[in-house]
Request: fold
Amino acid sequence: MNAEMRAMVSALTLSCAASALAGNDLAEMRGKIEKTYTVKAVNKFYGFDRIVFDFDGHDAWIVCPKSESRPGKPWTWTMQWANAFVPRTNVPQMLEDGFHHVTIDTFRHRMDKEGLKVSAAFQKFLVDELGFAPKACLIGMSWGGFFSVRYAVNHPESVAKIYLDAPLLSFVDFQLIDDIGPWDGKMPEEGWGVSQEMPLNMAERLASAKIPVLLLYGGVDAVVPPARNCEPFAGRFKAAGGDITVVKRGLYAHHPHGVEIDESLIKDFFLNKDRIYP
Reply:
């Protein structure tokens, strides 16, 4: 057998081994989930195996890497809009690198007290029953930013890092104020601007939790105005000693979220790789 043939055989062997590992991971995880919850489907998510299941009345899913999980079983969690701009969030890149990826649909709660309770129970299940890392890497786009900050402040021990993208952090000047779900009618007399329930007013508490943040936003976002949301949040977070990297894309509006698909800014942030951010 010549050198070229040996290389081809070796590559094929490694590929088969990786597929076997991924298959074992999928089967084992599905078995563990089915002990408590109903699996609704097993399908593909950008080429990766996904298990969709019912978690106490909420649609949830877990995506498995094709190869062996990274040591410690790290994972990303898109807190809202999990099917939006996926390649631009570096999620496929991280799946290739051995991360798991999850979501749970809690939009009807808008991360109020019930949403916090459901999300915490979901993470507890992932950690205690499926062996996931104790701390999640959160992806918070738009409403997902609202969810991420509120969740991290209420459960700082459960969050490793947060990537925020055009995050909704206050209902002041929010263009879709008719869509705030269970928050409707709960504005304090002084207004949303002073409400301690708003993520904007949680900046100092999040900074004290020592959770690093990567913030991307469009300079001409008219849906979630930066001047009322991420810009004052970034200033307050940094002033309180928080670790934050800010990337402002001057001509971008609310969309698109993420980065160009050949860039790895978000992945590098979660992996602690050294790089010079824009």
Notes: The two ends are 50 Å apart (CA to CA).
